[in-house]
Amino acid sequence: MDPSTELFERIGLSVALGLLIGLQREATGAEFAGLRSVALVTLFGTLSGLLAGHFGGWVIVAGLFAITTLLVLGNVMQWRGRVADVDPAISTEIALLTMYGLGAYIAFGSFVIAVVIAGVVVALLHFRQELHSLVGHLAAGDLRAIMQFVLITFVVLPVLPDRTFGPLDVFNPFEVWLMVTLIVGISVAGYLLYKVFGGNAGVLLGGALGGAVSSTATTLAYARQAREGLAAGLAAVAVTLASGVTFVRVALEVGVVAPRLLPAVALPLGIMLALTLGGVGLAWLRVRQKGGRPPLQQNPAELGPAVTMAALYALVLVLLAAAKTYLGSDALYVVSVVAGLSDVDAIALSIARLANAGVVAEDAAWRLVLVGVLSNTVFKVLLAGSIGGRALLVRVLALAAPAFAAGVALVLLLPASGAQ
C-alpha cells in the first residue's frame, strides 16, 4: 500500500473513532468533552504517535502530560465556579485519556484492535445505568462467586501443566480447565443478564435467560411451578425455549474449540432452533400472558460446580477416546447418548476437542454432537413430565417433537461428506 494512502486511512480512522465517542459524550450531556473535543484529542494522539516515530517516545509522554494538564485545569475551573454541582465521576476524563492513547496507537497499530477498543469504550460509557443496575442486583454471595470465577480463570488455569497424561494420551489438565472456564464464562454472562432482567422477567424472558445459565435447572424450576398451579402451556413455553437456547450455547462452544467444525454443527442446530422457536411462538400466541415466577438460579461461578464440571468433562473425554480405541467408532454414539443425558456441554466440548485434534472425523463429529443434544432433549422432556405432570409432558413433547424429529432425520439421512 502507498505510504500516503495508509497515513490518510489512519488519520481518518482516528477522527471517526473520536467522533463516535464524542457523539456519545455530547448526547449524554458531558460538560467539556463533546463531539469536536474527543475527535481532536484522538487526532492529537495520532499526531503524537506519528511524531514519536521520528523524534522518540517522549513525544507521546509529552502529549499525555499536556492533555492531563488541560483536564485538571478544566475541572479546577468547574470546582471554583459551582462546587456543589460538580459530579465526582471521572469517566469523561478517563475516556479522553483513553482516546488519546488510542489515537497514538492508531499511528502504528492494528485497525481491528483500535476499533474493538473504541467499541468497548463507547459501550462502557453508554451503558452506565445498566452497569450500575447490575451491581445493585448482585448480592454479596454473587460477588464472592464472581471473584471465584476470576480465581478459576486467571489463577488456577495458568499454573496447570499443558501436556497430556495417561495411556490414551488425551487428558490435558490445562485444556480440561480451559473448557471449564469457557462453560463457566458463558454461564456467568447469562447469569448476569438474568440478575438484571430476571426479577421482572415473563415466561419468555425467564426461559431464555434461564436457559443461558442452565436449561436443566430452568426445566426443573418451571416443572415445579406447573405442579404448583402455573398453566401447563406457559411452563411448556419456558421449558422448550430454554432447550432452544441450549442449541445456541452448544454452537458457541464448538465454534470456540473447533472453528472448522462449526459450519457442520451450525446447520442442523440452526434447523432445530428454527423449529423450536416457531413452535414456541405459536404456543405463546395461544397463551399470551405474563405469569409464573422466574426460576431461581445458582451462580455458575461457584468453585464446587466448576470442579465437578472439570471431572465430568475429563471423564467424557477419556470414555470417548477409550470407546474409539477399543470398541470402534460406533461406540462413540453410545457414549454421546449416555453423556448427553447428564450434561450436553461436556459431550459437545469433548467431541469438538477430539475433532480439532483429528481423532474424530468431522462428518462423525457433528453427528456425535447432535446425538448428545438429542439425548439431552429427551432427558429434559422426561424431567418436565415427571415433575410437572402429564399435562406439561404432553405440551413439552408437542413443542420439542418437530426439532427432535428433524435432528434424528439429519443424523440418519444426511449423506456423509467424506471429511476425515
Please, could you describe this protein's structure?
The protein folds into 2 domains: 3-126, no CATH class; 139-413, no CATH class. Helices cover 80% and strands 0% of the residues. With 420 residues, it is mainly α. Mean pLDDT is 81; it is low at 83-87. Helix 7 (140-159) runs antiparallel to helix 8 (173-197), helix 8 crosses helix 12 (303-327) and helix 11 (262-286) packs antiparallel against helix 16. The chain is globular, with a radius of gyration of 26 Å.
Describe the SSE topology.
Layout: H1 3-27, H2 35-55, H3 58-81, H4 91-106, H5 111-126, H6 128-137, H7 140-159, H8 173-197, H9 203-227, H10 232-257, H11 262-286, H12 303-327, H13 331-342, H14 344-356, H15 362-388, H16 390-413
